[in-house]
Amino acid sequence: MLEHTGRFDDPQLESLLPPTAINRRGFLAGGAGAGFALAAGPLAAQSVIRTPADGLYTADMKVPTGQGDMPAYLACPVNGARHATVLVVPEIFGMHEYQKDICRRLALRGYTGVTLDPYFRLGELARMTEIREVVGLANRLEDARMLADLDALVAFISAHPRVNAARMGITGMCRGGRTVWMYAAHSKQMKAGVSWYGGLNPMPPAMPRTPIDVAGALNMPVLGLYGGADAGIPVALVARMQEALKAGSKGSQASRFVLYRDMPHAFHADYRPSYRKEAAEDGWQQMLAWFKEHGVA
Description:
The chain is α/β, with parallel strands linked by helices and 297 residues long. It contains 8 helices and 9 strands. The chain has helices spanning 97-108, 131-138, 143-157, 175-186, 211-214, 235-246, 250-253, 277-293, and strands spanning 7-8, 56-64, 69-77, 83-89, 112-116, 163-173, 192-196, 222-227, 256-260.
């Protein structure tokens, strides 16, 4: 059920979504892009959001997985209380400054935000400059391994004195958004999920099943935030996913989509040319409201 002001969830309105070109802006590269995914292109310095850690508790962590220690990052209010916790699953570029900043933004809203680098066994994807190399490596990460690593992360942080394991949610962008759907069908420890333009197509051999395949068996409600002009995720595919959710479990039936008219893929990524401020800010508020509604607050 999608509201107005440029977003809607009625599949019958697909014909109102013509492809739209991404408006290019000026960019700054070089030192300004330090800490961000290099293969994503020059940093869109005029729109990038930088959230200082002042007044926050932050920590770099190493999470044991049985196949090496996985890098992770945590941010939360500086007080010693346990806070509702949101996992932030990265795009194909792995953990970089964008995800860490999202954790700090969540911390300013009273959450403990935790992100991870699920690609750490394949190299530092955020430091690679060739997008084809990044995509090739990221597509080697099997869903089974990704889900197991998330389980390891959840087990690790559940004992952390600043994490409330009874009020935990998950969000992610692109491959991370796809993982939200898959983890919703895998884990029973999350209260709710928010998928930002997570892919819905099969990607064999590492990702042979799709979110549509598991849509009927979600253990938690998921909010999908998608772009109506996303060239890689056609609206018709979103409509198929929406129909699959309707006939599924309680968590599946409680899930829904917000589809942003004329928005491209990665419209939340403020460090990239795809960023669209209005849709990104609205999606952020939708996410916070979704977590609050479903007990992650």
